[in-house]
Amino acid sequence: MTNLDKIAAERAQQMALHAQNISGVKKPIETLERLVTKALGVVQSQGVYACMLFLFSRTGDESKIAPVVRAQLFEALKSLSIFADAQVPEANSRARDALRFYSERVAGDNLDTLLLVRDLYEQTLTYARYHAKALGA
């Protein structure tokens, strides 16, 4: 049995850790908090595919933090046994390839998979938001 809470906590910690080290962003932790808050809203209202599309469409400082968030969300998927045989996107994956993976493997025919990933992403982004708040305090 997979512990989604543990996966979410680990990935959220890594988001905050990596975001702190982004150069060229004036306030990286505040930018991370703002970005994951928006991404969480997208997941909740429009779904996993829309969230990934959102993260690939960022501009300005958010475009420098978005790869950190995407990379950790990709890593979260690798922790799930249902993706053991899948070519989960890597941190440097192109938008086209990553979005194809999400439309075929995550949002495909299996509703259980989509709901599992949505729950995992909601928890991960929530934790990342709180990590950013704690670091920014």
Can you describe this structure?
- With 137 residues, the chain is mostly helical.
- It has a single domain (4-136), classed as Orthogonal Bundle (Peroxidase, domain 1).
- The chain contains six helices and no strands.
- The chain has helices at 4-20, 28-46, 48-56, 60-78, 95-106, 111-136.
- It starts with a helix and ends with a helix.
- The mean pLDDT is 94.
How are the SSEs ordered, and which strands pair?
Blueprint: H1 4-20, H2 28-46, H3 48-56, H4 60-78, H5 95-106, H6 111-136
Helix pairs in contact: 1-4, 1-6, 2-3, 2-4, 2-6, 3-5
Kindly identify the CATH topology.
Answer: Peroxidase, domain 1
Q: How many distinct folded domains?
A: 1
What does the average pLDDT come to? 94
Whole-number radius of gyration? 14 Å
Number of strands: 0
- From N to C, what is the helix and strand string? HHHHHH
Structural class designation: mainly alpha
Q: What's the architecture, going by CATH?
A: Orthogonal Bundle
Helix content: over 70%
The residue ranges in which pLDDT falls below 50 over 5 or more consecutive positions are none
CATH class: Mainly Alpha
From the N-terminal CA to the C-terminal CA, the straight-line distance is 35 Å
Shape: globular
Query: Which sheet architecture does the biggest sheet show?
Result: none
The CATH superfamily bears the name AF1862-like domain
Number of H- or I-type helical stretches: 6
Strand residue content:
under 5%
